[in-house]
Amino acid sequence: MLAISNKVSIPDHEIEISAIRAQGAGGQNVNKVSSAIHLRFDIPGSSLPDFYKTRLLALRDHRITREGVVIIKAQRFRTQEGNREDALRRLAELIRSVAVVPKARKPTRPSLTAKRKRVDEKTRRGRTKELRGKVDLQ
C-alpha cells in the first residue's frame, strides 16, 4: 500500500514492478544482476480519485505515456530494494505534485505614483542622452 496522503493510497496490485538490468558502467556485477526497477502505473485503471486522475493525465511529463501509464525506471542504487523504494517514492512525489492547487493570480496595476516616477525617470534619462550628441561649434 503506497500512501499518498491521509485519505488517498494506492493498493500494491495496481503498481506493476519488474526487475531489469541496470544500464551503464558497473563492472561484472551489472551484466548478471537485475538490480534496476521498472515501475508501471496505469492512471485510468487505478483507484485514485477523479481529481488526481484528470490532473495527472493533463501533466506534460515524459514519464506519462499517451495511454496514461506512468513509467519510472530506478537504477540509482546498487540494490534492488533501494531502487524499488526510490521508484515508489518518485511515483508518490509525482502524484502529490498534482494535489497542490496553484494559487490564482490576481492582476494588479501600478499606482499613479509609480507611473509618474517611471515617466520622470525616462525623461531624465532622455535629457542625459541628449547631452551626448555632437557639439555644434558655430
TrEMBL record:
It is an enzyme of class 3 (hydrolase). GO terms for cellular component: cytoplasm. Its main location: cytoplasm. Residues 105-138 are annotated as: Disordered. The keyword Hydrolase applies. Belongs to the prokaryotic/mitochondrial release factor family. This is Peptidyl-tRNA hydrolase ArfB. It comes from Thioalkalivibrio sulfidiphilus (strain HL-EbGR7).
